[in-house]
Amino acid sequence: DSGKSPRRLFPRGYRPVLGSPFLKLCSFYRCREQKYDYDNLPKTSVVIAFYNEAWSTLLRTVYSVLETSPDILLEEVILVDDYSDREHLKERLASELSGLPKVRLIRASKREGLVRARLLGASVARGDVLTFLDCHCECHEGWLEPLLQRIHEEESAVVCPVIDVIDWNTFEYLGNAWEPQIGGFDWRLVFTWHAVPERERKRMRSPVDVIRSPTMAGGLFSVSKRYFEYLGSYDTGMEVWGGENLEFSFRIWQCGGTLEIHPCSHVGHVFPKQAPYSRSKALANSVRAAEVWMDEFKELYYHRNPRARLEPFGDVTERRELRAKLQCKDFRWFLDTVYPELSVPEDRPGFFGMLQNKGLKDYCFDYNPDENQVEENQVILYFCHGMGQNQFFEYTSQKEIRYNTRQPEACTAVEAGKDTLVMHPCSDTTPEDQKFILQEDGSLVHEQSKKCVQATRRSSDSFVPLLRDCTNSDYQKWFFKERMS
Ligand code: UD2
Ligand code: MN
Questions:
Q1: EC top class, in one word (predicted)?
Q2: Labelling 391: which of 67, 91, 184, 328 has CA 20 to 30 A away?
């Protein structure tokens, strides 16, 4: 944040890294050959909401839009200040921008959060297409044309660029070494990235065709202004940050639109390691999305995040009315048709939640994929906390003890000759070493070895489940509990 005008903080003539899979290579060359119908493409208003952003990243975003967008396609750049209080974003920013063509700065009169800040920008936009960007981006040559071309062809398409990575420490444009990834979510309603599935590769007519994506990351996309309004723009009951990306994604698909990523459009983004504001509203926002769009599947979310069920989420009547008015499809249709890769838990009553021991009271199965545990991927026992997450397991009708809170899903297994419980990838047909029988009396028998899972001391203050010869001990008795009582 040196204070100097960053005329060119981004590398000139940057080209994405080659050497990755087929699709990427083909699209790289084919994208450069694309011809666009400039005279007939719609013009766009670029809307950038910001809250307390650093000077250099904010200006880098603005200058890169101006330098990479063909004049004829760019109506204006609307910066929306979401009631920032940092000094450099006051008069100094206004004067920096005042000399720039097409750039408008508007300010919220109170903190609105990103949803209402973006809508404030959209409400004054004059272009036919709205293009939303985060305030720490760098647009890459040729980023805009494919987005507008696609919307010109199909008004109900909502189109995202490929999001390249800008390094959080060095601000270097790292690009995207692999082919584009698409968006999904896990059952905590956290956004996830995935490889393009085989069925989608088959559907694509060429390497420069759009890639359909079940969800979007949220920050970077173009949408016809008229279609955005038809779809009900955003849920204005959502505060600050989070949840609006999944809500909008569900709504686009369920109400008849398509959500796509254009492999020829690239925009870099600084993925924040920490945000300049609290993100505690994300939970309520996600609950609003679940309550309006997910039908009975919202229960799968509540099971994995019991706090969500208790979170006050305000009134969603109007959003439900919108759903009825637009005659949107149900969530089962979305899962079956748009996101068949997502495995849908069974959650049979009595067979999900904390897996608690009877002898070692208050201790539960616990699996933390992020933490380096004594043995890799080992299941441990920890004080039952009732918060779902790392202590949420599901016993399936396929006899698996599944961890399906996050992706990738994992299944409890015992390797041949060992006595520790570890998590392995699940598969469509359950491997023998992943089968457990939960008996009426609470015994948990590993089917292959015929041994019982027993709560066992590992050190003075830590416990693990291990396979032992079956006895009638309470340390070998287990039961599922949905919440703390
Ligand atoms: C991702 C999205 C982001 C948004 C978010 C979920 C990308 C690259 N980013 O988080 O756009 O969808 O998921 O909500 O897809 N802002 C305000 N007011 C606020 C808070 C934020 O104007 O109260 C602005 C902020 O300055 C930024 C944008 O909203 O321009 C998104 O916020 P972020 O960059 O902190 O979110 P990010 O990228 O972690
Ligand atoms: Mn961002």
A1: transferase
A2: 184
